[in-house]
Design a protein that fits this description.
With 261 residues, the chain is an alpha/beta fold. It is built from 7 helices and 11 strands. Bound molecules: uracil.
């Protein structure tokens, strides 16, 4: 919520003399709509997890006209150098999904406890605009491009160990790193955006990046002043990429159907 308000502060009103449009939905999603460099944009909170990202993408799609570009700015754990605390990690190679399979505990038949999906790529042009804008904001050494992993939990399927649950996840992060040499970040939403965009018949274009809030390899966390600074810089980069992105006026002409209610 605070991140959305910080970023929305950079918007111009939708019409001269009007205020920004603002709506808090019953599900708890805050939407603030205005313009950036003259282009209509909305800042929308997605809350946490893939289920919430599913609500946001599908329900925004149902009320927006024309092709829709979505840039996710989130936070993540950095999995390996050169990705380090405070960097902007761009999912330029897309994202894989890491799910906990409860049948592995129920049936105990040797199946994978945390199966990993194939990677889904982002929109290449939106990602390239986003990467350039991030480099302008924080400098090239603070922008790392690679593969993201989206987990269905902050805990078990992100390899956090200890506590009262039988998670059997001690090797999860080392296995992920060995299987995917381009893997840099671990979080909870990006894969869902990229997957829905890939299934949108061209009507949604997606790209994603995260502020590295934690370093999983050194167990350290970013201080709150730098988080706020990166939210502002990352927000500006996301808005610049969206404003520069060419979009088709009519989503129904793109190889797809019209949005549903
Ligand atoms: N968000 C996550 O999902 N994981 C982290 O480690 C940090 C932020």
């Amino acid at each position: 919520m605070d991140r959305a308000l910080l970023i929305a502060d950079m918007l111009e009103p939708p019409r001269p003399g009007a205020g920004l449009f603002q709506h808090l939905s019953g599900r708890g999603f805050l939407t603030i709509t205005g313009r950036y460099q003259g282009v209509p944009v909305s800042v929308v909170t997605t809350l946490m997890g893939m289920a919430n990202m599913d609500f946001v993408v599908r329900e925004c799609r149902s009320v927006a006209d024309g092709q829709m570009a979505v840039v996710r700015l989130g936070t993540c754990g950095a999995l390996r150098p050169p990705a380090k605390l405070g960097d902007l990690l761009v999912a330029a190679d897309g994202a894989v999904c890491v799910r906990r399979d409860p049948d592995a505990w129920t049936l105990n038949d040797g199946r994978a406890r945390y199966p990993v999906s194939a990677a889904v790529p982002p929109d290449p042009l939106l990602t390239s605009l986003l990467t350039d804008a991030c480099r302008r904001e924080v400098g090239p050494s603070r922008v790392v491009c690679g593969l993201d992993a989206t987990a269905d939990s902050f805990y078990g399927s992100q390899g956090r160990t200890g506590g009262p649950f039988d998670d059997q996840n001690e090797d999860l992060i080392s296995d992920l790193l060995a299987a995917r040499p381009d893997l840099i970040s671990l979080e909870m939403e990006t894969f869902k955006l990229l997957h829905l965009a890939a299934c949108s018949k061209g009507s949604v274009l997606g790209a994603a990046f995260c502020i590295a809030l934690a370093e999983r390899y050194s167990n350290s966390f970013l201080d709150s002043a730098t988080v706020s600074e990166r939210e502002l810089q990352g927000g500006r980069a996301a808005l610049a990429a969206l404003a520069a992105m060419p979009l088709a006026d009519d989503a129904s002409t793109l190889n797809g159907s019209s949005p549903h209610a």
